[in-house]
């Protein structure tokens, strides 16, 4: 067989787990990035047509392996700086008052593979998004039952997925500031159902956190422990990964809530390989979804000339609530020849999408506008 | 905005839909291939643990777009060389006697991205597989009801997905020889349920063909028409795509049934980026699945020294039936240092997996053994 061993003379975690890096100018997508792209998946953009994303089409990012879990024996512990530590099984959680929130979730790395130079990691283009109805117990209900001590500042969530990342062996952990964890709006959930059914394995079965408005890294899956801490959490996913850095030694700002984005359902029909769209001449409905995790979407503009001119789109009512995407549409009269279509969202804080890439070393929060190449024939 | 238009001066289908090609020696995975990898997805290999693949983890390949379909108004027509053309809605199909078959399905392009040189298309590594319980009406029941004329030779299946491929605009179409379409075993189904629920959109909702033992291209999704023909079908997916060719002008043999393959559940835990596995010293269970669409799997061998030596694995009983994968396992005593694990399946026809790549220009049927790099620490 092939004499190259992919593990070479590896004798330590550092040998199998390299530091983060940026691809060279001529470097194509590597086999390592491809292995992540084959495991994880985005929303096929035509699935923007569904108000709620059907199972299997919602984006998925798993850092390590999907753990083997058993709902019948699963327990969630709540501890640390609380008066009464809790241990809850699924039956106990299901006996508490539940709520359902429709939430649009997006990976913080969405858009990474379109950056130049390209940060080497899960290579998303624009499709790492989805919207689901999540049902569960408000986190503040559990924290009230446990009784948070006055010195608590952070709420640390631990999942059952275990792996190595940049040389650090870890269970996946993220924290929310206590104020966010206990806010009335957006209300953070310990969710046990997605679109009315038990969570699928890849979405955190049997329990996950849902933190409306936050990028996906905050929604800890396979949730097994919640610990209140008196000092800020300094775990790997909080202080090493998921930072907006310009260089390796830049401490960077934390990645938190979702920047505004609009995506278009690519019109017409595709070429298999190039995904270029073919449309017929005449009036055509262009439509899609828009969201922001920071403030409600207030407008979507559409360009059919690659950003030279923009026209306002009609926004549908926010039927899904504040934390769910909104539908938008315009009518375009297609004329023969090539066109590049694009859309951009603006939110109530006045934030919009850039026309030049917002680069950072981890490739986070790249909400550069989508470009949809179309040929009218 | 960026002045490069991705559609350039495109004025015809040929301008947006290039011929098939093979990547150059230094060429990384392109953005076009990545766009396919982000839409379609494989089975995360730890999901080999499930006898039946849960929804959303089964591999998906969609040539064009997932069409928007409505089960309430959907009809399937059966025509061509039959005595009584049929038009059936879902209620009519559900009123007929149904059967459920457990079937392992694999994309014919599985393994393509590991080939050198690499055919440019959907870049699968090894993960394009899944097993489901498919419920529906035997195709031979429908053909008996329609009454096949004696001169019929091919059964042509048309899906609702529409696109362009290598310059040819088309609805997705594939044919089965009449003998295969009407065989008692393997029994071809017109399926309306997957794992006991209506088909998800990406798996052909509301109807698809299921042809046990065949690579995925035969299992036509969003099935809307079955036409019996008196001459062999010469459509694009039959005579242009899905051929084992050595060069562009080689007519090639047709891609038909699934070659034998074993896959291992990668043991231990992974590094996020390299996916290299870390295991602890001592006895360890290595396990996985093995299948062949040509004949029952009769043996699996495992190597823990990158193919220098092999030992037989224990095969579990074929509980899922003939057309479903079988579970296998061995015990391995891990010793500190790097190791490359692999497994290979053999079927009752004596076919096994090659240790050198079986190259062809389309990248089909590459059942080269999987290699799992592991470091024991």
UniProtKB/TrEMBL annotation, chains A, B:
Give the matching SUPFAM superfamilies: E set domains (SSF81296), Oxidoreductase molybdopterin-binding domain (SSF56524)
The entry's keywords: Metal-binding, Molybdenum, Oxidoreductase
Domain Moybdenum cofactor oxidoreductase dimerisation residue range list: 282-374
- Molecular function, one GO term: molybdopterin cofactor binding
Q: Enumerate the cofactors the protein uses.
A: Mo-molybdopterin
Q: Where is the Oxidoreductase molybdopterin-binding domain?
A: 63-236
GO biological process assignments: sulfur compound metabolic process
Q: Pfam families recorded for this chain?
A: Mo-co_dimer, Oxidored_molyb
Q: Does the keyword Metal-binding apply?
A: yes
Q: Which domain of life is it from?
A: Bacteria
Q: For the region Disordered, what residue ranges are annotated?
A: 1-25
Name listed for the protein in its UniProt record: Sulfite oxidase
């Amino acid at each position: 067989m092939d004499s190259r061993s992919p593990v070479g003379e590896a004798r330590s975690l550092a040998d199998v787990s390299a530091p983060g890096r940026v691809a060279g100018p001529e470097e194509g997508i590597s086999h390592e990035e491809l292995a992540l792209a084959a495991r994880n998946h985005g929303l096929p953009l035509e699935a923007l047509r569904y108000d709620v994303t059907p199972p299997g089409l919602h984006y998925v990012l798993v850092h390590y392996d999907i753990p083997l879990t058993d709902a019948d024996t699963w327990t969630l512990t709540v501890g640390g700086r609380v008066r009464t530590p809790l241990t809850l099984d699924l039956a106990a959680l299901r006996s508490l008052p539940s709520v359902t929130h429709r939430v649009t979730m997006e990976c913080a790395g969405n858009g990474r593979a379109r950056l130049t130079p390209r940060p080497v990691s899960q290579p998303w283009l624009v499709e790492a998004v989805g919207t689901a109805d999540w049902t569960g117990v408000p986190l503040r209900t559990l924290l009230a039952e446990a009784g948070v001590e006055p010195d608590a500042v952070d709420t640390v969530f631990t999942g059952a997925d275990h792996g190595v990342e940049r040389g650090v062996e870890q269970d996946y952990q993220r924290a929310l500031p206590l104020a966010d964890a206990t806010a009335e709006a957006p209300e953070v959930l310990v969710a046990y159902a997605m679109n009315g059914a038990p969570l699928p394995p890849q979405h955190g079965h049997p329990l996950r956190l849902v933190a409306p408005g936050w990028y996906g890294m905050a929604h800890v899956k396979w949730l097994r422990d919640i610990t209140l801490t008196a000092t800020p959490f300094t775990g790997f996913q909080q202080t090493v990964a998921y930072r907006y850095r310009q260089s390796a030694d830049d401490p960077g700002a934390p990645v938190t809530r979702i920047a505004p984005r609009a995506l278009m359902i690519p019109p017409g029909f595709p070429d298999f390989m190039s995904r270029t769209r073919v449309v017929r001449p005449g009036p055509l409905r262009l439509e899609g979804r828009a969201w922001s995790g920071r403030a409600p979407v207030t407008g979507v503009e559409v360009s059919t000339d690659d950003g030279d001119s923009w026209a306002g789109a009609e926004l549908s009512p926010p039927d899904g609530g504040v934390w769910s995407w909104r539908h938008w549409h315009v009518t375009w009269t297609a004329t023969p020849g090539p066109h590049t279509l694009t859309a951009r969202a603006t939110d109530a804080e006045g934030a919009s999408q850039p026309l030049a890439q917002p680069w950072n070393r981890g490739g986070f929060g790249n909400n550069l506008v989508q470009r949809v190449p179309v040929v009218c024939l």
